[in-house]
Known about the structure:
Layout: E1 7-9, H1 14-30, E2 37-41, E3 60-63, E4 68-71, H2 73-79, H3 83-102, H4 109-122, H5 126-138, H6 146-155
Helix pairs in contact: 3-4, 3-5, 4-5, 4-6, 5-6
Amino acid sequence: MTMCMIFNNLNNLPVVAQFESLYGAQIARWYPELTNIRIYTDQQGEGFIKKWDDRNDSPYTSNHVMNEIMRSEDVYNRCGFTIEEEYAILAHELGHMIAGVRGEKAQNNLQEEKNADQMTVKLGLANHMKSAIQKMIDYRIHPANNPEMLQRIAVL
Length: 156
């Protein structure tokens, strides 16, 4: 069986390869429109389409128009996510990508985040997403968003 490659893993990140090995076939069946998403770190260097926005302190950020996801090495290292938590964060970012590709609009930012969290639920990663969000709160990654982040934990 040939597996559809979801990611173009530009930095050859082991976590991305492992995530795709574990969940890629299922995601490809559910969302065949997700293919060849460029994924790279903020350490990639010059020449790539999207540069890390210094105001964005997310562990990952996605852009469905550019078909890419970028990983922040700094935030990843500060939070010390487990491999399962990082899988959950990747799943969450794919939730954003799916909504964007399908033109789905949320009522507000909190609803958009909750909607993206549903991919973690579908993949059985909800508890890992909860712990990843808690680490972001503990390490003050999104201090202004803590009330919303706590609401996300409660829903998961």
